[in-house]
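STRUCTURE REQUEST FORM
Protein name: HD domain-containing protein
Source organism: Amphibacillus indicireducens
Requested output: structure tokens
Priority: standard
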Amino acid sequence: MRIDSSYFFGQIPIDIQVSEDEAEQIIQRFPPPELPSGQSTFQIDDQTAGNQVSQRLLLNDYEVRLTRTNKNFLRLSFSNNAGMISAKMWDNQGIVNRVTPLLEQHAVFDIEAVVDEYNNQKSLTVNKLNPVEETINPFSLLPYTDEDFPNLTVELYSYLDQLDEPYATLAKETLALFWDDFRIAPAAKGHHHNYLGGLLKHTVGLMRIARYIMNEDKGHIEAVITLIQLVEKSYKKDLYLAYKNNEPINYSSTWNQTIDHLYTMTKGAMAFNEQKPDYNLLITSILFHDLGKILEYDHAGLSLKAFDVLFPTANTESLTERKQAGISMDPLGVMVGHIPYGFLLFSKLLEKFDLSLDIDAIHQISHCILCHHGLPEWGSAVKQPQTLEGYLIHIVDYLDSRYENAK
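Status: completed
Returned output:
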């Protein structure tokens, strides 16, 4: 099996070669999620006003509102893997009071509705709404990456397989423990990689950039500067197109106000000019840097395993009573955040897997996890990076998240 492509404006080569037997073993241990097949996705923009539709949809939120004549109606927001769908439900024969408890208790509904169009915007008027009790594949109701899951998995494993011990065991056992959640988790709610599979794709993206930086013949600093120059070129193109298209002066690109920050962080990395990046420290840190997002976010299909691992003696009854729906901030996870959670998971799993790691390496990796947002105002748990790997993990995270948005 060979994965041969490129990344980051075509600058970073991806060349993964494993035997078919090895690839099969990796996929058996880390299987891809079950994706919808043989079914068409309902897209409301393809519908004609007046069409009668019957669909299974995910409820995102709802609100009881009043008409101009002070009658109740429901304003609803649904989604499927094609996107968001606006809807309403009139209070015919007191139906609002009857269905509101169902909306509180359930997330997935079979609906019968009519397609409406107003000001070129299409929506649904719901006539019937029945909760679905059976377990639902979240990929049939939420957007997900268009990347090939087996290829991403083999690529990620190949990078982890190059770690020395005990880093390799820590990384692979961590992945195995949380694989069912890690493979489907988003990396954000609304900024970057905000879809199922986003965390897997983002983690692989960071490792691609980090490996390019570490393997560049001219050195890691020149490699970083090369990537920043590509960002500058893209930003200039965005600005020129905005000018030619006569867009407003306040136009902002994905790369707006990023160039100076990237050079500032590169200057920080230059303070460690005599050092070479440590593959074990940087790749292990990348695996853990956003792992806490399986606790910070909630969505259909996510398990409670990470809470059980971190807090094995806790009473988690309140978690089992939750209604999982679209991608949202976990009400408990948002109190802590994915950065501290990543550090806690790293510490906990060293003990769980009974691995002996040098105390300096433990602090180096912990520091990378805690500082990967770069600045305190951006969520970093430390004032600024204090190591070469600390600067590099922030730079590659910054580049990958914005490259995703730029694409």
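Reviewer notes: The chain has a mean pLDDT of 92. Residues 220-244 form the longest helix (25 residues).
Form closed.
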